Amino acid sequence: MISNERPSPYGYRSYSAAPPRPHVNEDTLKTEKIQVERKTFVFTLKENPRGRFLRITEDVNGRRDNIIIPSTGLEDFKKLLDEMVKAANELPAKAPEPQA
Known about the structure:
Blueprint: E1 27-36, E2 39-48, E3 51-60, E4 63-70, H1 74-90
Antiparallel strand pairs: 1-2, 2-3, 3-4
C-alpha cells in the first residue's frame, strides 16, 4: 500500500475500466441530419431486441454527445419540443447586456 492510501470503510473499490459490454445488433430504420450554426445533429431511428429508439447525436468540431429516447417516449418528447418552439417564438428576446 502506498503511504497516502487508506483502506476504505466501504470495501475494495476498483478504478479500472469496466469490462466491455457485449455488442447488441441494431438496425437503422431512418437517419436525418441537420446543421445548426456550428453544430451537426444526426437523428437516427434504430431498433434492437429491446425495442425502437431515437438516437440524437450532436457533433461539435469532432466532439460527439448522444441522447437516446425510447420510442415509448417520443410523443411526450415531441409535445415538449413543440412547447419549447412555441415559447421561443412568443417570448420577447432579452436585450444584450452592455459590455464594460
